[in-house]
Amino acid sequence: MPKTFELERAKTATIRRLELPEDRARQLGGLVILDFLTNLFGESPKQFFNRIDVLAVLEGVRNERTLFPEDVIATAERMKAAVRRNIA
Q1: Which one-letter DSSP state was computed for residue 45?
Q2: Is pTM beyond 0.70 here?
Q3: Tens of pLDDT along 31-87?
């Protein structure tokens, strides 16, 4: 019986991890960003990217104001600060 309970608990945890956000706009936004990054890396003449390269590209995307207007950036910064306060 305990093995069955553990198996069911593991299945439930796996299903929970696979669930997508309810908000379709967030899903679409995530997909747009992934497509944008895929195009950035795919169109680059560079064949290999190291950690610093990838972080620089991600920072550039984060600062792209056509994707993320100032009010969105400000909201994200407030949310990150709140998380940092709760962790510390």
Answers
A1: S
A2: no
A3: 888 898 999 899 999 999 999 999 999 988 888 888 888 888 888 888 888 888 888
Tell me the domain boundaries of the chain: 24-87
Euclidean distance between CA atoms 85 and 30, whole angstroms: 26
Taking the C-alpha atoms of residue 61 and residue 4, their distance in angstroms, rounded to an integer, is: 46
Chain-centroid distance of CA 65 in Å reads 18
Greatest pairwise CA separation for the chain in angstroms: 58
According to DSSP, residue 81 is labeled H
State the Cα–Cα distance between residues 42 and 82, nearest whole angstrom: 36
Closest CA to 20 of 10, 30, 11: 30
Find the helix packing angle between 24-43 and 51-62, rounded to 10°: 130
